[in-house]
Structures are given as structure tokens and as C-alpha cells.
Amino acid sequence: MANQLHLSIDRSSPVPLYHQVVQGIEAAIHTGLLEPGSRLENEIDLAAQLNLSRPTMRKAMDELVRSGLLVRKRGVGTQVVSSQVRRPLELSSLYDDLANNGSKPTTDVLTFAHVEADDATRKALHLPAGAKVYHFTRLRKVGGKPLALMENWVRDDITHIDEELLGSQGLYGILRGGGVNFRLATQRIGAMVANEYQAPLLETEPGSALVTMERTAVDDTGRNVETGHHVYRGDSYSFEMTLVQR
Known about the structure:
This protein has helices at about 15-30, 45-50, 55-65, 95-100, 120-125, 165-170, 170-175, 200, and strands at about 40, 70-75, 75-80, 85-90, 105-115, 130-140, 145-155, 180-195, 210-220, 225-235, 235-240.
């Protein structure tokens, strides 16, 4: 594998040996020689191929794991981390962001109901007693791999929503088609570990890291249009933001 990745060690270089390995594997990942999900040989074999000590090779691998480029999985070995979806912090939908970046997202509608809003939903959407909402959960995938598990509540006085629409379009696209002009949203981002329900749907292990997002969106007439709780695989998803000093 060392030859396939064009890894070479220059013992006359002032760069530490372990860091030369780090640089070589980083370059292989960034140029596509090592694709996301690729497995690396074990540290003993790689060390032997490069005529390095095992502690030197382990130090290199530890640094690559800490930097988020590699991951160690029990029973599998060391793998290149799947490329992350990096999403800007702005008022847009996951479906639109993925499609705009050239991905082809797909959606599995897991549950769908048109029901009377409970107290929490009425409060979030500023609805009167007895008002109904669309309540549904969806599994969003990219390249056939699950990325996000999304639960939403949407007021039903905007446009008709059904399972077929949700399976073929993004929620915000459906609402824009119903005349909604989104204005702002309140959003909270956090983290949790996957439970026994989330883990198999997201094809990860219970206890794995998940990114969480809670959002309530408001249109240009002041209506609270929808509210949702979403969870994303922590190894495949991150938010990006720009900070300015005031």
C-alpha cells in the first residue's frame, strides 16, 4: 500500500518521520488516491513497508485520527472518514443545500400524519386550540447513505402536503410552492449520542456522536410556518459559520 500511495520517507529531512507519513496520507486523501471509506493496512505492515518503528507509525495514525481524516472501527480496522457535508448557517433547507452542491439527495418518509397539534407545537407555531398540523419524520440520504433523521411539524393552512410530495421534494421547496417567503428562523445546534432507535436508521452504532438542530421558521407575514427537530451523523455533517466582531 505504501507504494500505491506514493509514500516515501526522507531520513535526511528535518521533518519528523511520523509527520512525513501524516503528510503522505493526507495528500493521498486530498488527491483521491484514498477514497472515503477506504481501509488502510494495519500499522505493523505499514511500518515494515516504510522501515519505520511501530511507535512512529502509531503516532502518525493517531494524529490523522485526531485531525478527523481517519477513524478506527472495531472489527474493521482503520478507514478514511467519509467526506462531510458542510452546511452554511443560513435560512435554507438541507435538501436545497445538497442539491445546489451537486449531490442527489433522496428521502424515505418514515411516518406521516395530519393531526391536532399538541401543546408544544401550538406554542411553537402560535396556533389556536384545535388547530391541525402535518407531522412527519423523514430519513435523508446522499449516495444511498443515511445522513439525517428529521421530524417536523407544519401548519396545515398554507398548502397541501402528503407523503408523495415529501418523498420527492424538499420541505422548503413545497412550502415556497405554496406561497411562503421565508424571512427568518430561530435555530439551536447541539450534540447527542445515538439511541437504539436512531442508530440503525442512520447506520451507525448506539452511542455514536450526532449533531442536533432545532429550528422554527418564520415567513414574511410573521407566521411561524414550521418547526423541526433534526439529527445528523456526526462523522458526515458539520455547520460552517462566519464570525464578525462588533
